[in-house]
Structures are given as structure tokens and as C-alpha cells.
């Protein structure tokens, strides 16, 4: 899946950093070699997509919030998710100004979400998963399964656990969905 070119990706990083900098009260956004005067102009305004923004400090997770729906402009989704990842991820305290200079961003732009009828349809490393049962919902990005060396069945089980469901819920009535994501990071 490739929706964005390098300039668009760079623009999304600038947009995310600017949103967090405004929220944290930071004077400057991380300097870039080739600043873009109007980064929003490189992202089509009619590009509707879900996204997740992940913050890491020295390789360690510091926040990750996303919006899987595809009914808002991507620029707006990235801005909102960046600020939420910095200040509203319930697993972490709000990002401090002292931490800001050490933050590396990763952005995952989500493709369409489609139903999985057979676990064999899931390609680890390409697909992210959503498990839904009643009001409970768990979502894991494609890179999570790779990071933990899970096969498709374990990935489905962990997605259920993330949603507060039993690990085998995907085999016992929970609906399973997959999506591709274009994942890019500031750090190599």
C-alpha cells in the first residue's frame, strides 16, 4: 500500500510535530533540513483515511493513539492523534516539555478495513487486525505482530486481548477485520 510520496510523509511529520509543539507550548518544532512552508498543501484535502501516531523515546513506546475511521481528512486525523498520543494515552503521563526533544514519531496511515472470514487471509507484517464483539474492540497495527514474532493466530488472539476479550474470542463469535497500513518513521 502506497498512498503517500516522500514529500507527503515529511509533511505529515511536520504537521504532527507542529500540533504537539503548540499543545506543549514548545517554541520550535524539530528543525528539518528542507523546511516546507505550507506542509498541508502536499496532502490532498480530500484524502480521507484513518491513522495512528506513535511516539517513542530512545526506542521505547511513549504514546500511541489512532483513529481507524476513514471519514475525516488525513491531515486532521494526524493532528488530533499526535496531540492525543502525547497527552491522552492512558498508559502514560502527559508528555513533558523536557521529553519533547527526544521524541521520535511513527505514523501509520490505514487502508480500508475488511472482514476476515479465514485466518489464512491475514498476512503478518502487511495486515493490522481489529477484533470486535459487542461494544468491545481491539486493534493492533501490522508492525506489532512483526515486533513480537507472532503468527496470524497469535496476532488474532493478542488483538482480542487488547480489546478486553478472551484470547480465543476470534474463534468464538468475535468478528475479525484486517487492514493494510502505510507505516513510516522519523528514525531509521
Write structural notes for this entry.
Strands 1, 2, 3, 4, 5, 6 and 7 form a seven-stranded antiparallel beta sheet that branches. This protein has helices at residues 6-24, 74-87, 97-100, 142-147, 152-162; strands at 50-57, 60-67, 103-110, 114-115, 127-133, 136-140, 175-185. It has five helices and seven strands. It starts with 5 loop residues before the first helix and ends with a strand. With 188 residues, the chain is of the alpha+beta class. The chain has two domains: 6-110, Hypothetical protein ph0010, domain 1 (Glycoprotein, Type 4 Pilin, 2-Layer Sandwich); 114-181, Dna Ligase, domain 1 (2-Layer Sandwich), CATH 3.30.1490.150. 29% of the residues lie in helices and 26% in strands. The chain is globular. Helix 1 packs across helix 2 (74-87).
Concise synopsis of the structure shown:
By secondary structure, this protein is an alpha+beta fold.
Write the layout of secondary structure elements.
Elements: H1 6-24, E1 50-57, E2 60-67, H2 74-87, H3 97-100, E3 103-110, E4 114-115, E5 127-133, E6 136-140, H4 142-147, H5 152-162, E7 175-185
Strand content: 25-35%
- Can you count the helices? 5
Q: Order of SSEs, N→C? A: HEEHHEEEEHHE
How many domain modules? Answer: 2
Annotated CATH architecture of the largest domain: 2-Layer Sandwich
Q: Report the CATH superfamily of the largest domain.
A: Hypothetical protein ph0010, domain 1
Residue runs with pLDDT of under 50 for 5 or more positions: 31-37
Terminal residue distance: 20 Å
Mean pLDDT: 90
Helix content: 25-40%
CATH class of the largest domain: Alpha Beta
Biggest sheet overview: 7 strands, antiparallel
Q: Given the C-alpha coordinates, what overall shape results? A: globular
Amino acid at each position: 500500500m502506497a498512498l503517500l510520496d516522500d514529500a507527503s510523509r515529511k509533511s505529515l511529520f511536520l504537521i504532527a510535530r507542529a500540533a504537539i509543539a503548540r499543545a506543549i507550548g514548545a517554541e520550535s518544532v524539530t528543525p528539518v533540513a528542507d523546511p516546507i512552508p505550507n506542509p498541508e498543501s502536499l496532502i490532498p484535502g480530500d484524502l480521507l483515511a484513518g491513522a495512528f501516531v506513535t511516539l517513542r523515546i530512545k526506542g521505547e513506546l511513549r504514546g500511541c493513539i489512532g483513529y481507524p475511521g476513514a471519514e475525516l481528512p488525513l491531515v486532521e486525523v494526524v493532528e488530533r492523534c499526535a496531540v492525543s498520543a502525547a497527552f491522552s494515552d492512558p498508559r502514560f503521563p502527559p508528555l513533558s516539555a523536557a521529553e519533547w526533544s527526544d521524541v521520535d514519531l511513527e505514523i501509520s496511515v490505514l487502508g480500508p478495513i475488511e472482514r476476515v472470514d479465514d485466518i489464512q487471509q491475514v498476512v503478518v507484517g502487511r495486515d493490522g487486525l481489529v477484533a470486535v464483539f459487542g461494544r468491545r474492540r481491539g486493534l493492533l497495527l501490522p508492525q506489532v505482530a512483526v515486533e513480537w514474532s507472532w503468527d496470524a493466530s497469535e496476532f488474532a488472539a493478542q488483538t482480542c486481548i487488547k480489546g478486553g476479550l478472551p484470547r480465543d474470542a476470534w474463534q468464538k463469535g468475535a468478528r475479525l477485520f484486517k487492514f493494510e497500513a502505510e507505516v513510516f518513521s522519523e528514525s531509521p
